[in-house]
Design brief:
5 helices; Arc Repressor Mutant, subunit A; 2 strands; elongated; 126 residues; mainly alpha
């Protein structure tokens, strides 16, 4: 497994949790402190800190120190790498669907078949 594959695995595993996805969504609007990130959740600051650590280890966020504040920042380049990986497969699927659409458009129209089967006759009761 390459380093890039391992990084993708860590990032997607980190994003598998709904709390971490919500944290990433919040950070997409700008950096925030642990307290700010914890506000919408009914979990402890320690639990939110652990979620941020998982996101850090996945390379999706990083922390800095500004006097008393320790803001958490989203790494847009990391998200771009995930998006690029997804887009590669999305584009392949779209090409396949376009080819299928072309085949279906070129096919002669089919007339609906009539149902030629008859209902089963009920067996006579003895």
């Amino acid at each position: 497994m390459s380093d890039a594959d391992a990084a993708l695995d860590r990032a997607f595993a980190a994003l598998a949790d709904p709390v971490r996805r919500a944290i990433v969504a919040r950070l997409s609007r700008g950096s925030a402190t642990l307290g700010e990130l914890a506000e919408p959740f009914s979990i402890s600051l320690q639990a939110v800190s652990k979620h941020i650590t998982v996101l850090e280890e996945a390379g999706l966020v990083w922390r800095t120190r500004e006097a008393q504040r320790k803001p958490v920042h989203l790494d847009p380049a990391a998200l771009e790498r995930l998006t690029a990986w997804i887009d590669r497969y999305r584009l392949d699927a779209e090409r396949s669907f376009r080819r299928l659409d072309a085949v279906l458009a070129a096919a002669p129209p089919q007339t609906p078949r009539k149902n030629t089967t008859t209902p089963r006759s009920k067996e006579k009761e003895s």
